[in-house]
Structure formats: structure tokens, C-alpha cells
Amino acid sequence: MTHPFRCLHSADLHLGRRFGNLPEDVRGRLMEARHQILNRLAAAARSHGARDVFLAGDTFDTETPTDKIWSQALAAMAAAEDLRWWMLPGNHDSLAAESLWSRVIAQASGNVRVITTPAVIELQPGVMLLPAPLPRRRPGRDLTDWMTEAATPEGALRIGLAHGPVQDFSEEGGNADEVIAQDRAATAGLDYLALGDWHGQMSRGSRTAYAGTPEADSFRHTGRGACLAVTVQKGAPPHLDRVETGQFHWAEMPMPLVPGQDPGPALRQLVPVQSAVRRDHLLRVRATGRTTLADRLTLQDTAQALAPDFACFQLETQALGTEISAHDLEALDHGGALRLAAEDLAQQTQDPARSETERRIAAGAVNRLFSYLRDDA
User: Fold this and answer.
1) Which residue in 17, 76, 87, 357 could disulfide with 61, CB within 3.0 to 4.6 Å?
2) 345 and 363 together in one domain
3) Whole-number Å distance between alpha carbons of 52 and 48
4) What is the C-alpha separation between 207 and 234, in angstroms, rounded?
5) pLDDT tens across 252-298, in order?
6) CA nearest neighbour of 118 among 102, 134, 138, 94
7) Residue 277, domain extent
8) Would you give the DSSP letter of residue 334?
């Protein structure tokens, strides 16, 4: 084949994910963004001259999505009738979900193809797809093995499509027998191997890549979700273009502090300057180091002031130590029971005989006393 073949490579849509670890007011927005991603993928395919959209596994978050989830997904793909959607069952929605896939196949429009067997598919003259659908969540073997012996016409492009980890690399971890050989593209003579499972984009050699999830779903991968616009031509490495498709931007940032440093400006420097764009940002800040009791409260106040601008804002202070000075204790109380309690807790925070957890609890108690006194004032 002399003409280049263009396709859109995506994976891990996880339609129907509930995001139970996040505040309730955020979950609905995230779930809707995942459904709308199908429209964004269609637009990305058209803008890059691709007719074929490969979904390399985990289109659905579970093997039992609600009827509304899979039915509306099929409707969105059917509406993009100028495209062909190739759905590969992954580990979250494997072929073991017979009820799901039988209904999807029965209702799918002609431009939606569910891949159920590892067999060569002719996409167009001179372009062959070699897929490896997952028969169950843990297949226990490298499902791409068959590609090395798969016969295709001489000179045809060979494109592999699979879902799973490469060697010791995986989104969730798994059985070592299930890993995809890192040199599979070479051993199977593939011009491109399109993979799903890892939710961040990553290339493994010049002819193998993970597309990542098109709508980011955790703090593990910074940024917005994306897919890959791929151009494959015989005799040359595939050309990969990152196409950002996600609505929500996820980020986790460290914030090391030292005593005497004003944490307010330090925290504000980490967030997007324009408050209008923060609505679609999920930000987790991990404060570390040490700070004074008063500055710790300043940090908490700044976080509370910023939080309403964001889809989700989390400040984690478990690894932030607190230095409690005599001045801090004087501010709590000049004498009496409150002062004595504060002094005892302050001593506990420095007691090497106590566990790290006990010292942290004591520091938190002093911090709370300081906060209550300030609020009363």
C-alpha cells in the first residue's frame, strides 16, 4: 500500500464510572463529560481525516453498565455515521459479559463493530487489523501471541489492537503471564500496535503506543484526557499526533513549606491564574515540610477561599509538620486549664517515645484549639 492510512486511536472511556471517592456535586459532571467524549472523538477523527476510530478496550467501566449507559453510547456512535467505530472488549468489559455484548451487537448500527474473535479484519484493501479481544478479565496469557503467525496479503499494513500491560507496566497491576511482549510490534511485523489499559499516553518503541483515556479520571495522570491521531504508511514509523479531548484537567501538586514562609501566596501560585477556568479543574495539593501554627491556619483559610472556584479542590496536610512556639501557646491562653492542655499536647508532638501517628494527632489537637480560639475571638 502506498497511500497513508489514518485512524483515531482511543481507549479506556470507562462509560458509567461513578467516581464514588469524589464529592457528590462533582460526580454528575464527570459522568456526563465521559458520555460527551464520544462526540469529541468523532470531531477529532474528522479533523484529522480519519474514518476509523479504534476503542482499545474498557469502553464501559463494568461488565454490567446500565441500559441507559450502553444504549446512549451506541446512539452517539450511530449519529457519527461517517465514521466506523471498532470496539475491543477490555478487562473491565470483557467478553465474559455475554449479556452486555449480545445486546450491544443486536442494537449497534452498521458503523459500529464489536470485535469478538482474534482474527484478521480487512479495513480496506491493503490495510489489515489484528485484534486481541479479552475473553475474560484475567486471561492469564499474552493475547497478542497469535499476531506473529497471522497471515496477511504481501505489502499490506498490519495494525494490532489490544488491551493490557506491557511487561511490568500496568494501570492496575496483574498477572505477569498476561503482559504483552514489549517487542510484539517487531515480532508480529506490525506497522502499529494500538494499546489500551494505561490511562496516560505513552509510547513503547516507535510502533507501539497507549492512547490513554480521552477524559481524565484520576490525579494519577496530570492534565486533560487525549487520544491519538495516527498516520500509518508502509516503510516508516507511524506518525502520532496527540489530540486533547478532555473537558476536565486533573493535577496533583506538592507544596513544600518551611517555618516563616507565608503559605497563602505559595498556595495561590499553584492554581490557575484565571479563576474562570478553575471550574473544570480538579486539584490536589500535598503540603509537606514544616510550618508554624499560625501559618498552618493561614494555609487552611486560603484553601477554603480558593475551593469554591474549582470542580474539586483537596488540600492534604498529613505530611506537614507543625512547629508550636511559646508565642503560639501564649496566644491560646495565658494560664489555666486550656494553657496546660496545650502545653501537654505540644510536648507530645516532640516526644520521640510516641509513634508518628500519636505525634500527628497531638499536633492536630493543638491546631484545633488554636482555630477554635481564633473563631471565638
Assistant:
1) 17
2) yes
3) 11
4) 12
5) 999 999 988 999 999 999 998 788 889 999 999 999 998 888 888 89
6) 134
7) 249-376
8) S
